[in-house]
Amino acid sequence: MTTPLALPCFVLAGVNCAVGIFYLLLFLRRREPREHLPFSMLCFGLAAYDCFCAGLYGSRSLAEGIFWQRLQLLSLSPVSIFNIWFLGLVAVRRLNKVLWVFILVFAALVPLALTLDQPGITLSLSTPAIKPIYWGPRLLVTYYESRTGAIDTLGMATSWIAYVYLFHALFRAYRRERSRYLVAIMLGQLAFAVGLVNDGLVASRVYSFVYVSEYSYLVVVTTMAYALLNKFVDLQVDVERLNSNLESRVQEALADIKVLRGLIPICAWCRKIRDDQGYWSQIEDYVARHSDATFSHGICPDCSRNLSRQRPGS
């Protein structure tokens, strides 16, 4: 039986899958920018997370709910890894030693959670935390869950430390570059923090409300996609503007080039040239008007000898 909260999760999974496929194809076609690969992997991880959320919300027993809750928590490790990878490339331009430590911690949490299946360490049927959520008098959903264990707590603590570190790196990058893309990404990370706080308080039974992390992750994906897409569009606009400027400069250069072409009428006796208006001009004047060439006058050896013969007394 599907609850009303499960249906939107399947829609979100489809959206994240579509976005992930799009950016993966972009990366396969053109390997720059490098952020496309971790972003596409993040989308696929979130699509799986959304499906596990739908399974949890539709559960009708504690055993079924813990099955989906375990998958949900396990999927958060690769999601965190790809998020760190993406934000590291955006804010720090590479994965430094601190980010590698975060990635290794999240990578280690998955085998630990699978091997140390004990009460207090990870999820267990002996530590139920069933939470019915009401919308007014109506029962909206019942979360059949277990209390989180030490490994899950370690994952949450690591997530918060990594979040603070990366948000600070994003803010420093923004102060350095003043990029609107970074503003969008930071807004998405703030939405992620709000969802994380809400889900933590709901899980701790501080107040009764629905989990919203899947919706906050949608904001994260939307802001990241907005930043990547606008960065790509701005790059294309810059290339088009550069091509337009180059084309204009080439046209200006071609306009300055004067070339003599066609049949030029010239007098066989005096060597004057007739222009398009019917006027006869010296060859030097005609060429100077129709090209960038200039003349310097001298005398050739043959003419020099002829003039010498014509002089009196030669």
Quick overview:
With 314 residues, the chain is mainly alpha-helical.
Strand order of the largest sheet: 1-2
Please mark out the parts with pLDDT under 50 across 5 or more consecutive residues, or reply none. none
Distance N to C terminus: 126 Å
The CATH C-level name of the largest domain is: Mainly Alpha
Large-scale geometry: rod-shaped
Q: What letter string, H or E per element, gives the SSE order?
A: HHHHEEHHHEEHH
Q: Summarize the biggest pleated sheet.
A: 2 strands, antiparallel
Radius of gyration: 37 Å
Helix proportion of residues, in percent? 55-70%
Q: Number of helix segments? A: 9
Structural class: mainly alpha
Strand content: under 5%
- Count all strands and give the number: 4
> What is the domain total for the residues?
2
The CATH topology annotation of the largest domain reads as: Rhopdopsin 7-helix transmembrane proteins
- Average the pLDDT over all residues and give the rounded result: 86
CATH architecture of the largest domain: Up-down Bundle
Task: Describe this structure as you would to a colleague.
The protein is mainly α and 314 residues long. It has 2 domains: 6-231, Rhopdopsin 7-helix transmembrane proteins, CATH 1.20.1070; 255-314, no CATH class. It is 67% helix and 5% strand. It has a two-stranded antiparallel sheet with strand order 1-2. Strand 3 (273-274) and strand 4 form a beta hairpin. The chain is rod-shaped, with a radius of gyration of 37 Å. The termini are far apart. The relative contact order is 0.09. The model has no long low-confidence stretch (mean pLDDT 86).
